[in-house]
Amino acid sequence: MTSLFYSALFGAVLINVMVFFIWEPVSMKAWIMMASVAILGSLGQFFTIKGYSNVEASVAAPFTYISLIMATFWGILIFGEFPTSSTLIGALVIAASGLYVWHRETRIKKRAKS
Q1: Which structural domain range is residue 48 located in?
Q2: Is 48 in the same domain as 6?
Q3: pLDDT in tens, 53-84
């Protein structure tokens, strides 16, 4: 809960400082959308924190790579923005590195048990 609180506090302070100079009145629909993003983002952060507190990071980390796929999907669907080749190569390097570390850690644990 502490991590969630400070993440939200940091985000709120940062956004308020940035918005102070460019704020324009928004519609009720925009308020609802902003509240929805805040609630869903907070829930996502909460569940990520809970997930990492219930299992070892080496078990949960590979699932975070799904966020790369989902970000690409939503970027294409909502914004019509396709990733560049360098972005795809970078994502593959990140995912491959994470999978390698996961594979290595599971092998080390198997050796330690035997």
Answers
A1: 1-54
A2: yes
A3: 888 776 777 777 788 888 889 999 999 999 99
Q: Which residue has the tokens 């993003």?
A: 37
C-alpha atoms less than 13 angstroms from C-alpha of 89 in its C-beta half-sphere: 3
Cβ(89)–Cβ(46) under 8 Å?
no
Q: Are residues 64 and 77 in the same domain?
A: yes
Q: What is the pTM of this model?
A: 0.58
Q: Are residues 114 and 70 in the same domain?
A: yes
Among positive and negative, which fits the CA dihedral 30, 31, 36, 39?
positive
CA distances from 6 to 3, 37, 47, 61, 67 (A): 5, 18, 15, 22, 22
